[in-house]
C-alpha cells in the first residue's frame, strides 16, 4: 500500500512536481505551486457494513406484484403494481386521472387487500360523488382528506391497516410543515415525493402519485419527479377523437410498450377493446380513403387516412389537417406536385386520420399520398389497400421500422393488398413494392 506523499501542482496550468517551485517552469506563473497529498489508498477495515455480493447465476426473488384486476391496466403494468414501487400518473387537469384511480381502486379485490385513497385536492363531497357515480362501494377502500404528508402517513400508521396500495391525488397538493414554501412549489413537491418514496420502500407498499401537467407539458413543477419514481404513466387526450391514451413513459420493472385507449363515459373510463378495428370501423374503399398501420406509443394501430382535394372556394388554397402534422402534408403535396405533376398547388386540401387520432409516424406518408391521388382523380384504389412507407423529398419511398410486424397485423385484420417500400421482398402477389411515388399511380383502376 502506497503511503501518502507530498506533491505540488501549479494552480494555473496543472503542472505537477514532487518539489516546490517559486515559478512554474511551464507557464511561468509566480507562486502558483499548491501543495496536495496523493490519495491515501489504505483501506479502512473498521466497523463498516458488509453488503451482500450478488452473483449472476443466483436466483433473485421476482418483484412481487399486486394485480389490479383491471385487465388493461395490468397489461400496461406487466401484471400489476410492484410492491414498494412508486408510480406517477401524470396528465392534464380534467383528463381523467382521479377517475382512473377510483376505477383501479374498485377493481382491486379484497383478497389483494386494502386501498388508501388520499385526496388533498377535492372535497369529501366531490370524491364521494365520483365514487357513487362510478358505482364504487368497496369496503376495502379508505378515503383520507389531507395534504400534510406527516399527517397522512400518521393516519395510515395509526389505522392498524397495512394497505396493499396507497393512492395520492395529487402530489401537487402535498406539503411538509418543516419546509417553508407553499404546496405545489418545486421544493414541496420534491420533498413530499421523497418522503413518499421512502415510505413505499420501507413498508414495501406501492404508492401511486397523481401529477398534473402544466402548459409546457412538463409535470408541474419538477421534471425531477420523473427521476424519483419507478414508473411514469402518462394520460393524454388523443387529438380530436376525445379518447384518452394511457402510456408508460418509464418503467423500472418491465417494458414500456403497452398503451390503452379509453373512451370517457358517465360510468368512467371504458377501454377500447377492439383496438385493431376501432379506427377502421367506418372504412370503405371510396375515393380519398387509404389504410395504414401507425405506431402510437409503442403500439401498432391500423387506421384510415382520408383526403379531400377540391377547388378552392376563396382565393388562396387552404390546407387543413386533423391528427396529421401539417408540415408533413405540405411536404407530400410538394413532392406529388413536382414528381407526378399532380395539380395540387391550387386546390383546397383536407386530410385527416380516423377520429382525429394524432399521428406522427412518417410511415403513413404513402397512405397520405395515395389518398391525395385518389381524391384528385375521384377514383378509389383498385382494392382496399394498406400502405406503408416514408416519402423522401426526392419522391423515393423509404423503408420503415417494424415492416414485418405491420405486414403480419395487416393480414391478421384481413387486408391482403399491401403496399410496401422496397426493403423487403414480398412473398405474395398481393403485396406491391413501391420504390417511388410514380409507382403509386399503378394502384388505381385503369381509366381513372
Ligand atoms: N358527472 C359527470 N358525468 C360524466 N362525466 C363526468 C362527470 N364528471 C366528470 N366527468 C368526466 O370526467 C373527467 C374528469 O375526470 P377527472 O378524473 O376528474 O380528471 P383529473 O383527475 O385528471 O383532473 C371530465 O373531463 C369529464 O369528462
Ligand atoms: Mg383529479
TrEMBL record:
Top-rank taxon, per record: Bacteria
Domain RecA family profile positions: 62-213
InterPro entries, per the entry: AAA+_ATPase, DNA_repair_RadA, KaiC-like_dom, P-loop_NTPase, RecA_ATP-bd, Ribosomal_Su5_D2-typ_SF, Ribsml_uS5_D2-typ_fold_subgr, Rubredoxin_2
Biological process annotations from GO: recombinational repair
PANTHER family reported in the protein's UniProt record: DNA REPAIR PROTEIN RADA, DNA REPAIR PROTEIN RADA-LIKE PROTEIN
Transmembrane segments: none
Record protein name field: DNA repair protein RadA
Recorded GO MF terms: ATP binding; ATP-dependent DNA damage sensor activity; damaged DNA binding; hydrolase activity; zinc ion binding
NCBIfam families: sms (TIGR00416)
Pfam families for the chain: ATPase (PF06745), ChlI (PF13541), Zn_ribbon_LapB (PF18073)
Similarity section: Belongs to the RecA family. RadA subfamily.
UniProt cross-references to Gene3D superfamilies, sorted A to Z: 3.30.230.10, P-loop containing nucleotide triphosphate hydrolases (3.40.50.300)
Entry function: DNA-dependent ATPase involved in processing of recombination intermediates, plays a role in repairing DNA breaks. Stimulates the branch migration of RecA-mediated strand transfer reactions, allowing the 3' invading strand to extend heteroduplex DNA faster. Binds ssDNA in the presence of ADP but not other nucleotides, has ATPase activity that is stimulated by ssDNA and various branched DNA structures, but inhibited by SSB. Does not have RecA's homology-searching function.
Keyword terms, alphabetized: ATP-binding, DNA damage, DNA repair, DNA-binding, Hydrolase, Metal-binding, Nucleotide-binding, Stress response, Zinc, Zinc-finger
GO CC annotations on file: cytosol
Amino acid at each position: 500500500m502506497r503511503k501518502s506523499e507530498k506533491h505540488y501542482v501549479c494552480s494555473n496550468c496543472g503542472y505537477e512536481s514532487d518539489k516546490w517551485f517559486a515559478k512554474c517552469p511551464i507557464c511561468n506563473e509566480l507562486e502558483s505551486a499548491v501543495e496536495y497529498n496523493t490519495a491515501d489508498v489504505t483501506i479502512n477495515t473498521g466497523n463498516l457494513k458488509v453488503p451482500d455480493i450478488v452473483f449472476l447465476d443466483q436466483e433473485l426473488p421476482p418483484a412481487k406484484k399486486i394485480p389490479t384486476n383491471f385487465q388493461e391496466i395490468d397489461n400496461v403494468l406487466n401484471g400489476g403494481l410492484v410492491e414498494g414501487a412508486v408510480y406517477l400518473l401524470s396528465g392534464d387537469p380534467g383528463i381523467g386521472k382521479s377517475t382512473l384511480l377510483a376505477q383501479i381502486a374498485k377493481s382491486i379485490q379484497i383478497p389483494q387487500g386494502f386501498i388508501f385513497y388520499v385526496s388533498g385536492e377535492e372535497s369529501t363531497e366531490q370524491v364521494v360523488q365520483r365514487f357513487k357515480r362510478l358505482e364504487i362501494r368497496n369496503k376495502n377502500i379508505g378515503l383520507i382528506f389531507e395534504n400534510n404528508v406527516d399527517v397522512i402517513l400518521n393516519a395510515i400508521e395509526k389505522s392498524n391497516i397495512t394497505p396493499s396500495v396507497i393512492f395520492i391525488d395529487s402530489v401537487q397538493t402535498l406539503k411538509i410543515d418543516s419546509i417553508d414554501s407553499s404546496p405545489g412549489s418545486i421544493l414541496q413537491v420534491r420533498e413530499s415525493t421523497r418522503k413518499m418514496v421512502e415510505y413505499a420502500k420501507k413498508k414495501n407498499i406501492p404508492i401511486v402519485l397523481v401529477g398534473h401537467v402544466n402548459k409546457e407539458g412538463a409535470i408541474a413543477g419538477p421534471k425531477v419527479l420523473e427521476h424519483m419514481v419507478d414508473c411514469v404513466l402518462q394520460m393524454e387526450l388523443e387529438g380530436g377523437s376525445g379518447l384518452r391514451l394511457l402510456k408508460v413513459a418509464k418503467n423500472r420493472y418491465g417494458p414500456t410498450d403497452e398503451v390503452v385507449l379509453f373512451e370517457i363515459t358517465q360510468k368512467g373510463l371504458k377501454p377500447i377493446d377492439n383496438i385493431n378495428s376501432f379506427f377502421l370501423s367506418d372504412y370503405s374503399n371510396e375515393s380519398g380513403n387509404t389504410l395504414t398501420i401507425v405506431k402510437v406509443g409503442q403500439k401498432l394501430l391500423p387506421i384510415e387516412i382520408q383526403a379531400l382535394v377540391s377547388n378552392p372556394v376563396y382565393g388562396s388554397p387552404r390546407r387543413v389537417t386533423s391528427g396529421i402534422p401539417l408540415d408533413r402534408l405540405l411536404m407530400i403535396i410538394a413532392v406529388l406536385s413536382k414528381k407526378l405533376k399532380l395539380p395540387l398547388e391550387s386546390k383546397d386540401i383536407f386530410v385527416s386520420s380516423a377520429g382525429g387520432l394524432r399521428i406522427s409516424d412518417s410511415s403513413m406518408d404513402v397512405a397520405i399520398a395515395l389518398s391525395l391521388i385518389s381524391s384528385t382523380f375521384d377514383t378509389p384504389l383498385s382494392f382496399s389497400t394498406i400502405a406503408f412507407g416514408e416519402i423522401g423529398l426526392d419522391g423515393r419511398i423509404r423503408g420503415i421500422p417494424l415492416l414485418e410486424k405491420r405486414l403480419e397485423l395487416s393480414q391478421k385484420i384481413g387486408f391482403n393488398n399491401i403496399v410496401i417500400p422496397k426493403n423487403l421482398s414480398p412473398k405474395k402477389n398481393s403485396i406491391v413494392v413501391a420504390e417511388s411515388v410514380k409507382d403509386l399511380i399503378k394502384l388505381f383502376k385503369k381509366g381513372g
